[in-house]
Amino acid sequence: MSPEHLAAAVRERLPDVYVARGEVVAVVERDDLVDALTWLRDREGVALDLLLSITVTDWPHAEPRFWVAYDLRSTRPVRRLRLKVALPGDDPWVPSVTGVHPTADWHEREQFDFFGVRFDGHPALTRILLPDDWEGYPLRKDEPLGGVSTWFEGARLPPVDERGMA
Amino acid sequence: MSDRIGVEARDRSGEVRQETMIINMGPQHPSTHGVLRLLLELDGETIVSATPVIGYLHTGIEKNTEYRTWVQGITFVTRADYLSPFFNELAYCMGVERLLGVEVPERAHLIRVLVCELNRISSHLVTLATGGLEMGAVSVMLYGLREREVILDIFEAITGLRMNHAYIRIGGVVMDLPEDGPARVRRLLQVLPERIDEYETLLNDNPIWRERNEGVGVLDAAGCARFGVTGPMLRAAGVASDLRKDEPYAGYETFEFDVPTRTEGDAYARYRVRIDEMRESLRIVAQALERLEATPGPVMIEDPKIGWQARLSVGPDGIGNDPEYLREIMEESMEALIHHFKMVTQGVRVPSGEVYQPVEGPRGELGYHIVSDGDHRPYRVHIRDPSFVHLQALPTMLEGYLVADLIAAIASLDPVMGGVDR
Amino acid sequence: MPVERLEGIQLGTTPEEVEAEVERGVLTTTLDRAIGWARKQSMWPATFGLACCAIEMMSTGAGQYDLSRWGMEVFRASPRQADLLIVSGRVSQKMAPVLRRIYDQMVDPKWVISMGVCASAGGMFTNYAVVQGVDTIVPVDVYVPGCPPKPEMLMHGILTLQRKVRTEEPFR
Questions:
Q1: Which among B72, B147, B211, B397 is placed 20 to 30 Å from B168, CA to CA?
Q2: Chain B residue at shortest CA distance from A71
Q3: Yes or no, beta carbons of B58 and A130 under 8 Å apart
Q4: Complex ipTM tops 0.95
């Protein structure tokens, strides 16, 4: 099924769908997210039953600040679709989709760990990759890269984001 | 989990006693395939629940790519899943090439397929070797690593490094095959099939191997879909899903190979699938080698704003800039020098956009979600690593089994913690 | 790239220090020499493979670059039974206390080889997640650079450590 066909098949349910670079992308409101994912999974001929990954991107100088992208795939034959949700910067929460795709469990924990985006309804939203007592959300654009400045024999090299390179 | 401490059980005489123990396994443990920590709730030897705790190898690769140029990103992502570095590089570069909207030369496709299939074989050999070691079959470890050394020698001849190569670049590959490259690969093609026969003779009908692996860590097709499991685990559960066939990339549609599947979905089935996949990869390598001889040409895209312009060659102290190229930029042309400088320090400018690029890695679908804002540095690179996703299925695979089965199940799941934690 | 040049810092080995070390070696008694020899011959590494360097460490222990030439193919899982800790791979912030605990659990005499640039100095990962050199956590005897170091490089590091063990004072 070509991307255009897939876009046409989902347009009735997701009106905000477009095709770019051979990929089908649809934008939904966060209240509609769980329902849309359930429809995409159960709809015959679409059957996007694999949630591959959840990616949050931080656009600190724009509003909405956070965009959450759900990459979906059907097992066989392979169809792909990306679902995107926009979140405001001051209240970044989105409903958890673990009820629809149990594999979302760790993905949501990881994105919470990195960005501080809350996934409402997640069974146990805790940090997963960083130590449990870590403060801050390192992948946000206003957080520094970190890393101590390195000492060499008679010289000092500052951390990467302080070096003033382009 | 805390409300299940003190689960009561009745023993044979009908008395009630408190049962479960909570045991911590790892992160430093010889059998957990890397720095994986498991919180096991045990009822004697039986596992009541197993909770993986990860993050002990978290390296911050995704954040680090945002502070480096696009080409430097290759050196970062190649170290994410360190047993399949070429696949990481391939997915990243293909994603960037999609954002740029460029095509790489035909010979570059063939070389990419060649090294990726060799990488698949070496990754499966490590799976076999470490799986065997963890279950006590130490000879398998030595045999597997012996074969892998031959492949690593080939990698060293082609790319200069045994692991973490940074060979596949945006626009192609950085250097053509060396003169003795095809001969080395041909020698491998002669040697490896017999060695794989050796493994099969040693393990396929080995009563201990079968006893420990059959019926262990079962995950059927429905379970795979729930947990997003792809790759050999899905193929061992009966679903013939392989991105090289279903959604071909890098020229895979022109190669002839089969997709081995089994139906049992247990650790033994996964072992058989991986052995068969090694043989299929050898077929692809042989075809790629033939076609490489018939396809001369460039291995890097011609466009000077995208391709890595430095011509490399093997000198007295290893692989470095070609002396001819150095002479051109240092002595002949100021423009070439300035261009070289700008390309090395700033590099490609990738138009803004978002792309998800999957490849069929040795462990499953490896995907790169790349976001660009038009700069010479990535804006966001998210790695969808199959091991990260598969580890979620571990508790389901293990409930009710014995601790010894846990080792076999993890070995058959084949997590690489570099990919899990990134 | 702004690099500060610092005045009055002297690092590395001076001729006086080398002479003192040679003198110490020469003055070591027969018993000390015997103990040093025995210790270097029978080192057992602890399994502490973290990342890519761990794979190269496994290759060093495998058939082609055989570590059992020096009696070291026995990787002990329990730190109580090991005397060499080869920190192979990047140490994340979460793993740092675990590393320290394993090191503390090892019994004297014990040595540490920091294998690879990630363990020695943080490697290419100068960021929030990686400890910039394990010598901030445990005392390191030999640093082996490389990303990852070839098995021959690791063997050179091990032989350097053995030379050090043979000539050091056994009861510090």
A1: B147
A2: B356
A3: yes
A4: no
